[in-house]
Design goal:
Layout lengths: L6 E6 L3 E7 L4 E5 L2 H14 L3 E5 L6 H9 L4 E4 L1 H10 L7 H15 L10 H26 L6 H31 L1 H11 L6 H10 L8 H8 L3 E6 L2 E7 L4 H16 L5 H10 L4 H22 L5
Parallel strand pairs: 1-4, 4-5
Antiparallel strand pairs: 1-2, 2-3, 6-7
Length: about 300
């Protein structure tokens, strides 16, 4: 048993961690306090597993993942949708914390060779948190603006206007914090400046790429497009062959990339604008042409990140 590879799957929640060790079938569990997490880490270090995986759980997994990584273990954070898809494929319909831990461990064992280990990056984590909250505030501000079109009650309108003003001030504070963080982090600052040189990549897009697409430059163009959600997946079976369809990916990045591609077309970028026009001239629908242009843009950015010294 000591020589057999062991994979640990851990389901994380606010108050506890439930773990399963594959293939021996042992279980571990712990509360989420600092002392309990420390004890769990020591127990897993003594086990010396091949790898440990946690399912992304809104940030609750981050504390344990950081501790496990600091202890020298190989750690992975897995997308919940993929683990759940694996569970369905295995015929596991029920869903509990204990069952999830089993599925995480088995998924890790089956796909370990294809996964990218978790590597803590405090500066990038801060940048991601700042950018995420900025998106929330901008979305709220936009929602309030649309309400003003139909609300005539003076008290409500005044409250909405006051809230919009407060949101604008908060967004300005976040923009300043992002700028300060980038200036204090040389490697992020260099990458940010390089990305900004590409047509269509404004401050928001460059920040989002640095914060939420760390794979940029480390994966193939197809994988980069899939992470953005603009890679068409084949749908062929027997004699039937339907057009590919894009799905999945990181929606907030895709939304920002759409505006970036649109901006590049409007400023007549020498690569993206002719590419888009050729597709439209061939009769391609607007949506299809835009998705293809976004895929072209992320391919360019991935190539830059792969070869430019700023990203090395």
């Amino acid at each position: 048993m000591l020589d057999e590879k062991q994979y640990v799957g851990i389901d994380a929640s606010k108050l506890r961690f439930d773990g399963y060790i594959h293939p021996c079938g042992k279980r571990v569990s712990s509360g989420s306090s600092a002392k309990e997490v420390e004890a769990l880490v020591r127990r897993l270090v003594d086990l010396n597993p091949t790898a440990v995986a946690l399912e992304a759980s809104g940030g609750y997994e981050r504390k344990l993942a950081d501790c496990l990584h600091a202890a020298g273990l190989e750690v992975y954070i897995l997308p919940p949708a993929r683990v759940r898809g694996y569970a369905r494929a295995m015929g596991q319909v029920a869903k509990t914390d204990a069952i999830d831990a089993v599925m995480i461990a088995q998924y890790l064992a089956a796909t370990h060779h294809r996964l990218v280990p978790y590597a803590p990056d405090p500066a990038r984590a801060r940048l991601s948190a700042l950018a995420a909250h900025r998106r929330r505030l901008v979305a709220e501000k936009s929602g309030l603006a649309s309400q003003l079109d139909t609300i005539d009650e003076p008290i409500v309108r005044n409250m909405i206007l006051a809230r919009q003003k407060a949101l604008a001030q908060d967004v300005a504070v976040l923009d300043k914090a992002i700028k300060t963080l980038l200036a204090a982090t040389p490697d992020l600052s260099q990458r940010y400046k390089r990305l900004r040189q590409v047509a269509g990549v404004g401050p928001v897009f460059a920040t989002a790429l640095l914060a939420d697409l760390p794979e940029l430059g480390h994966v193939s163009p197809k994988v980069a497009a899939a992470l953005l959600g603009v890679a068409p997946h084949a749908r062929q079976s027997g004699a039937s062959s339907r057009p590919g369809r894009c799905n999945g990916g990181r929606k907030h990045l895709r939304d920002i990339a759409y505006m970036g591609a649109l901006s590049a077309i409007k400023v007549k970028d020498p690569v993206l604008e002719p590419f888009y026009k050729r597709l439209r001239a061939k009769g391609k629908p607007f949506k299809l042409a835009m998705v293809a242009t976004m895929r072209k843009l992320i391919t360019i950015l991935n190539a830059i990140a792969r070869s430019d010294p700023a990203f090395q």
